[in-house]
Write a structure and sequence with these properties.
Blueprint: H1 20-30, E1 35-43, E2 46-51, E3 54-59, E4 77-80, E5 90-93, E6 99-103, E7 111-116, E8 120-126, H2 133-146, E9 149-155, H3 163-176, E10 181-184, H4 193-200, E11 204-209, H5 215-223, E12 248-251, E13 257-260, H6 273-279, H7 281-287, H8 304-311, H9 316-335, H10 338-363
Parallel strand pairs: 8-9, 8-11, 9-10, 11-13
Antiparallel strand pairs: 1-2, 1-4, 2-3, 4-5, 6-7, 12-13
């Protein structure tokens, strides 16, 4: 197959997201006789890659980097050896447009790329359990930071038959994720599936959520086939075991592809300050009206954020969640940055001193007996 004769409009990889931009990125490797492909699954140093010649198995040995952020992952576009090569290798990664990253549990502060080149980050939140708005905010920040457009899907909507209750849950979720579409969906009844399908096609979507959120069932409904294993959840807490154990890129019949991921128990921030800012856009907007540009929204006079808390226009829970995610992000960065650690200690001492000063002002001058 002569790849140089294929235009982006007639390329066999178009259903997987190939476009003129990827064609331009791949041009130098086409001259070397390599094949373009998209990684549909990674497993123990090898990966399945869909190419113009079909799906091939390739070794990732040549692209094992020192930087864990550049490890081959599902959704990557790559250059692989041509037909007849034995063994077959992935020779390079094309630059990622987006990357969904979380922190690992290691003490090295490494980031783990969950999926690459996604246009939408679909966050599945089960209505079979109590709505956890803090987790919604965490997933939303992760999604915004990736560069993908977040989309919140409230799964198992059939378990909330009362329309008013469902509307209330949707409203609460919308308040926890400003600027993000919230869509109640039921894989059992089909509610919301047509609308979700239209939103995801064309493009690449990555499906995120906790174990038991109904991701595998939702993936099967979107693909139109039982491509993912499904297990029952515990009635006591709505939680389930991991049914998806690998990250798989699945073609959608309506166009586009879906990356299904294993359930995430922990979603740690990794260099996600921008994502946190977008997830809490209303707080960032209020902060611009504070009297002091470095306002910490603690006890400072003229703080627009605290004023919004006082008048009820900003829930205190939102501010606490915002502070928590920012602190987590700062701690992670400080593990590998001694200068930042020193700045954090100095800033903390200054805030302590300011807090003591403001408390003394509130108490007033000490009167002598």
């Amino acid at each position: 197959m002569n790849l140089s004769s294929l235009s982006a409009s007639s390329h066999p990889l178009i259903p997987y997201g190939w476009d003129e931009g990827w064609e331009s990125e791949f041009a130098p490797y086409a001259e070397q006789g390599l094949l373009p492909g998209r990684v549909v699954r990674v497993d123990r140093g090898q990966c399945d890659v869909v190419t113009p010649a079909g799906t091939v198995r390739a070794d990732t040995e040549f692209v094992v980097p020192r930087d864990p952020m550049k490890v081959v992952c599902t959704g990557d576009w790559v250059a692989v050896d041509p037909e007849g090569s034995d063994p077959r290798y992935v020779r390079t990664l094309l630059p990622r447009r987006t990357a969904l990253v979380r922190s690992t549990s290691s003490k090295r502060s490494d980031g783990q790329v969950l999926a690459a080149n996604a246009d939408h980050a679909v966050i599945a939140v089960s209505l079979a359990a109590e709505l956890d708005l803090g987790r919604v905010e965490r997933f939303t920040a992760l999604a915004w930071e990736s560069g993908a457009q977040p989309l919140l899907v409230l799964t198992k909507a059939d378990l909330v038959p009362d329309p008013d209750t469902l509307a209330h849950l949707v409203s609460d979720t919308e308040m926890a994720a400003p600027g993000v579409r919230v869509l109640p969906v039921s894989s059992a009844t089909g509610e919301g599936l047509a609308e979700l399908t239209a939103l995801l096609a064309p493009g690449t979507s990555v499906l995120l959520g906790q174990s038991g959120a109904g991701k595998s069932t939702l993936a099967n409904a979107l693909v139109g086939a039982a491509v993912q294993d499904v297990r029952a959840i515990r009635d006591s807490d709505g939680k389930g075991r991991h049914t998806t154990t690998t990250r798989d890129l699945l073609p959608l019949p309506s166009g586009g592809v879906l990356i299904d991921t294993p359930g995430l128990r922990g979603v740690g921030m990794w260099d996600a300050e921008g994502g946190v800012a977008q997830a809490f856009a209303e707080i960032e907007e209020l902060a611009e009206r504070c009297r002091f540009p470095d306002c910490a929204h603690q006890v400072e006079p003229g703080c627009a954020v605290l004023a919004a808390i006082d008048d009820g226009s900003l829930p205190e829970r939102r501010l606490e969640s915002y502070r928590k995610l920012l602190r987590e992000n700062e701690r992670l960065a400080a593990r590998t940055d001694a200068r930042l650690r020193a700045e954090m200690r100095r800033d903390w001492k200054q805030r302590q001193a300011l807090g003591r000063h403001m408390m003394e002002r509130k108490r007033g001058p000490m009167r002598k007996p």
